[in-house]
Every structure is written in C-alpha cells, then in structure tokens.
Amino acid sequence: KHEVMIKVRKGASESIRHEAAALEALRGPGVVGLVESDAHALVLEFVRGPTLEERLRRSVLAEDEIVGVGL
C-alpha cells in the first residue's frame, strides 16, 4: 500500500509529459518517485514533511542542509 499525491493539470498534457520524463530520469534518494502518469495527471509517492519552499521561508539553509537537499 502506497500513500500517493495526485497532481492534475487541465489542458497541459505536454507539460505533464515533460515532468513525468524528468522524474523518470531523476530516480533516486531525495527525488519524489513517479508511480503513474497520463496526459493530465501525475501520481507521485507522498513524502511527509515541509516543502522546500516552506523550509526556506523559515530560515536560510546551512551548507550541509543544501548538500542534503541536492543529493
């Protein structure tokens, strides 16, 4: 059983295809996994925790945190 997030974009099939291809190419730790996609939606693994945007609003990231986000 997987917890997932569904990202829907109406009328943006080319954008969804590009994002799905990028996620497929970037598989690895620190990258949200693509479960499934079609022309209008991405089904992504759900990862608990703050978004990068939320984290940056709280404070500047330390160097070791930046490296951790990038890996």
- The portion of residues forming beta strands comes to 15-25%
Assembly type: single chain
**Sequence of strands across the biggest β-sheet:** 1-3-2
Order of helices and strands: EHEEHH
Count of distinct strands: 3
Query: What is the residue-mean pLDDT, rounded to a whole number?
Result: 84
Cα-to-Cα separation, first versus last residue: 26 Å
Helix content: 25-40%
The profile of the biggest β sheet is:
3 strands, antiparallel
Radius of gyration: 14 Å
Shape: elongated
Q: Label the structural class.
A: alpha+beta
What's the total helix number? Answer: 3
Unreliable stretches, pLDDT < 50, 5 or more residues? Answer: none
Account of the 3D structure:
With 71 residues, the protein is of the alpha+beta class. The chain is 39% helix and 20% strand. It contains 3 helices and 3 strands. Strands 1-3-2 form a 3-stranded antiparallel beta sheet, with helices on one face. The chain is elongated.
List its salient traits.
single chain, 71 residues, 3 helices
Kindly summarize this structure in a few lines.
With 71 residues, the protein is of the alpha+beta class. Helix content is 39%, strand content 20%. The longest helix is centred in the first third of the chain and has 13 residues, at 13-25.
What topology does this entry show?
Blueprint: E1 4-8, H1 13-25, E2 34-37, E3 41-45, H2 52-58, H3 63-70
Antiparallel strand pairs: 1-3, 2-3
